[in-house]
Amino acid sequence: MDLTKIISLSLLFFCLLIPVKTTAAVTCTNAVCRRDGPIIRFPFRLKSHQAQSCGYNKGFDLTCHINGAVNRTTITLPFSGNFTVEEIDYAAQEILINDPNNCLPQRILELNLSTTPFSGVYVNKFTFFNCPTSEYLRFRPLNPITCLSSKNSTVFATASSRMVDYLSSTSCRLMKTVEVPVPWPFYEQIVTSDLSDNLWLTWKVPECRRCEIRGGKCGIKSNSSREIICYDVHKPAIPRRARYAIAIGAGIPGALIAFGLFCYVYSKINSCIKRRRLVPSPEINNAQAHYLHSSVIITGLDGPTIESYPKIVLGESKRLPKIDDATCSICLSDYEPKETLRTIPPCQHCFHADCIDEWLKLNGTCPVCRNSPEQISSPENFTNS
Ligand SMILES: *[C@@H]1O[C@H](CO)[C@@H](O)[C@H](O)[C@H]1NC(C)=O
Ligand SMILES: *[C@@H]1O[C@H](CO)[C@@H](O)[C@H](O)[C@H]1NC(C)=O
Ligand SMILES: *[C@@H]1O[C@H](CO)[C@@H](O)[C@H](O)[C@H]1NC(C)=O
Ligand SMILES: *[C@@H]1O[C@H](CO)[C@@H](O)[C@H](O)[C@H]1NC(C)=O
Ligand SMILES: *[C@@H]1O[C@H](CO)[C@@H](O)[C@H](O)[C@H]1NC(C)=O
């Protein structure tokens, strides 16, 4: 970077400073229900602690509730009741909620977001089945929803249409099909899930993403208008020392150069901090960590790669390299003669070709053991002997 560029950049920053300092908004301080709880600020507000003008509208009102000796941030959804707020991501406009009584599937069955500001980030249709516990072994690969199950009946939920067809043909009773807000389409639950992970919701209005990403905060401009403004943009980017340097050095190129250099270094640090946000925090559970990990690093495989994995057409003997592989663990149907199967090279797990192909397009790992087939350079061939 040459000198003139630095000076002009510095002047630009200096000019940007002025309107920021003079912008006023309804001032609100952040709130929390407990020290490590989600920070509550616009568009949300903690009802008993922050003025009405600190939140966008009633839909974003939060309260604190003691549950299991913990002061929990709580949101009341009309028609659906109270949920614990686990996390709020202001820049992504996402809120993660769960059931304070640890039976989220029960709440999902009654979930109705139609009068809330929220909707699912991604939505999967899940069908709930109530199956006789005595036949549990037939449904072995499914994850039972323990809080809805009893001694005689076990409840499962699945997002796979083949699985729904299969369960409908058994003595299981179809309970309900509902739309579930999930963190990622086909995330883990392509076959089954106990649906205990947080619900991922987003809000579209007020739109503050751009403001948040620039380091600003949204708020209502004044008590008398509903206008939303973005303020405090880059305020933390100008520490006292730099402001002091500007104050005494106004007009002195040296100070401007120093400030320009500082801004350049700061922007590098800042983009690094932004990238670090992608690393899951320790509070995030394993499933979400897996999701975050896979959504950032692993994407699905391309068609030619999938096609390169060994395919097999089952003979009448239905013999397979692994004796216990009599059922496709994606759709849970038994293999039939003449069906086309595909195997994943490193682990030799088998699936119906049409099941695993769809899976691998979205997710580059084996659904059974989570090994990534990409790690293997030369797939072993396998034959139906
Ligand atoms: C807005 O109203 C709240 C009380 O409702 C008051 O505390 C605050 O000072 C007002 N702010 C402005 C800018 O008028
Ligand atoms: C829970 O948090 C709120 C907000 O900080 C506080 O007003 C309330 O007293 C807390 N409740 C308990 C029981 O600590
Ligand atoms: C839900 O939250 C509201 C608002 O804090 C409270 O008045 C109500 O008692 C709560 N309901 C239940 C069932 O906890
Ligand atoms: C949600 O509630 C509204 C209002 O009661 C109702 O009109 C709507 O049909 C409900 N939606 C679902 C999916 O139950
Ligand atoms: C479970 O099944 C047993 C035997 O069939 C029956 O006696 C019992 O009442 C059932 N319990 C429930 C909760 O349905």
TrEMBL record:
Keyword Zinc-finger: yes
Pathway note: Protein modification; protein ubiquitination
SUPFAM superfamilies (alphabetical): RING/U-box
Signal peptide limits: 1-25
Location within or outside the cell: Membrane
CDD domains, per the entry: RING-H2_EL5-like
Superkingdom as given in the UniProt entry: Eukaryota
Major localization listed first in the record, in broad terms: membrane
Family note: Belongs to the RING-type zinc finger family. ATL subfamily.
UniProt protein name: RING-H2 finger protein ATL21A
